[in-house]
Amino acid sequence: MKASNKAQKVVLAYSGGLDTSVILPWLKETYGYQVIAFAADIGQGEELKGIQKKALASGAIKFIVKDLRQEFVEEYLWRLLKSGAVYENGYLLGTSIARPLIAKHQVQIAHKEGASAVAHGATGKGNDQVRFELTYMALDPNLKIIAPWKDPNFKLTSREAAIAYAKRHRIPIEQTTRKIYSRDRNLWHISHEGGDLEDPANEPKDDLYVLSRPISKAPNRPEYVSIDFEQGIPLRLDGKAIDGVRLIETLNQIGGRHAIGQVDLVENRLVGMKSRGVYETPGGTILTVAHRALESLTLDRETMHYKALVAQRYAELVYYGQWFSPLREALDAFVDSTQRFVTGQVRVKLFKGHCTVAGMTSPNSLYRPSLASFTMGSDYNPEDARGFIKLFGLPMQLTGMVRRAWKGDGST
Fold it and tell me: Going edge to edge, which strands form the sheet with 144-146?
């Protein structure tokens, strides 16, 4: 043990899950750190029950919990929703978007409590280690970063070893060697990794799901919800004003009932390998589908197509942990500009795992029946199309002429 560490305070991002449950006493036992356990309430629900007692019993000198749900929704999730970011065509970034928020408040607590270091329980193989540490570096590069999974003295590098350590130290944990999924839950989603999911050949079991029902147990009748947006932000559900936290909670319940938002994905981690995860994002999926539909009605073609490129880059920034980067801030300025006219109502149909648009209206709609109709009207002169097509196709026409002449010259 290093005696010089005894006076050093460390703020640990503490979830009460398996990893942080063993890391807290390990930091104290191995290096003599004074550990302040910080838990962020971002919608985990009952997972926070008893967490303070557990942290203090495990050796924390202080436990701090912050209700960050409103900030999570208004400063992170709504930005994510407006951007249209989806990682690798399936992942709605539930874990990725939460890590910078947690790390930001860790840094603030470290300043307030006089701590010289911050710590996290992310593994040396995962993405979360990058997300936490890039945020620490961006917000206070002078803080020491402690990452036990990358410490050569840390031997609890498997779920089984961590469980055994917890049992020896009488730390209560939910995981067992039989059911050993690694889960991360917040207001936006819940993720499932590990165990039998590590083999992509295995179908997710019905008892895996937490926020939603298996599709086979979803109702046999569809359900409809309507969502009103103002400048890209959802503000009403079925015509009634509702705050963001309650909106997502309600849509999670409704969408979960119909098995909405279940994604089984083999994704490319930032650190290089592929991983397999199963995600449940019922409310987030409903909002994403509705928002995308409203954009199709209110954005012009060039903006919509370019925004799709920005959305992919935005997703990478979030996934890679670069939330507090100048580029993300710059992209937000572009996204906010595109959302000025994304106002209106979208009706969504939920049925057996499918979330489909059942109608939409907007005062800023660019859709005009007179132009879209197959019936020719005064708004559109088909004769104008001749010149347009001739000019639009001129490069292709010229290329075809040159190539035909080239082949006629005896070349192949």
Answer: 62-67, 34-41, 9-13, 117-119, 144-146
Torsion of CA 351, 356, 359, 364, to 10 degrees: 150
Catalytically active residues, by annotation: 19, 99, 128, 182
Lowest-pLDDT range, 3-12, 29-38, 202-211, 234-243? 3-12
Q: Sign of the C-alpha dihedral, residues 402, 406, 407, 408?
A: positive
Comparing CA positions, the residue from 156, 155, 159, 147 lying closest to residue 120 is 147
Three-class DSSP category at 232:
coil
Taking the CA atoms of 314, 183, 206 and 278 in sequence, report the sign of the dihedral they define: positive
- Position 179 confidence tier, pLDDT thresholds 50, 70, 90: low
Identify the pLDDT of residue 411. Answer: 54
The DSSP result for 244-288, as a single string, is HHHHHHHHHHHHHHTTTTEEEEEEE-TTS-EEEEEEE-HHHHHHH
DSSP strand pairing (62-67 vs 262-268): unpaired
SS3 349: strand
> Are 145 and 117 contacting, i.e. CB atoms less than 8 angstroms apart?
yes
CA distances from residue 121 to 15, 37, 155, 228, 370 in whole angstroms, order as listed: 9, 12, 13, 39, 59
Fold of 3-82+91-180: Rossmann fold (3.40.50)
Question: What are the φ and ψ backbone dihedral angles of 362, each rounded to 5 degrees?
Answer: -155, 140
Any idea which architecture 189-299+342-361 has in CATH? Answer: Alpha-Beta Complex (3.90)
Q: E strands within 78-232? A: 117-119, 144-146, 182-185, 190-193, 223-230
Considering the chain, tell me which residue range(s) the CATH 3.90.1260.10 domain(s) occupy. 189-299+342-361
Rounded Cα–Cα distance for residues 19 and 129 (Å): 13
CATH 3.40.50.620 residue ranges for the chain: 3-82+91-180
Average pLDDT score, the chain: 93
How long, in residues, is the chain? 412
| DSSP three-state, residue 42 | coil
> How far is residue 370 from each of residues 172, 249, 373, 377, measured CA to CA in Å?
67, 40, 6, 7
Q: What is the pLDDT of residue 382?
A: 80
Q: What is the pTM of this model?
A: 0.92
Q: How confident is the model at residue 409 (pLDDT cuts 50, 70, 90)?
A: low
Backbone angles phi, psi at 185, to 5 degrees: -125, 140
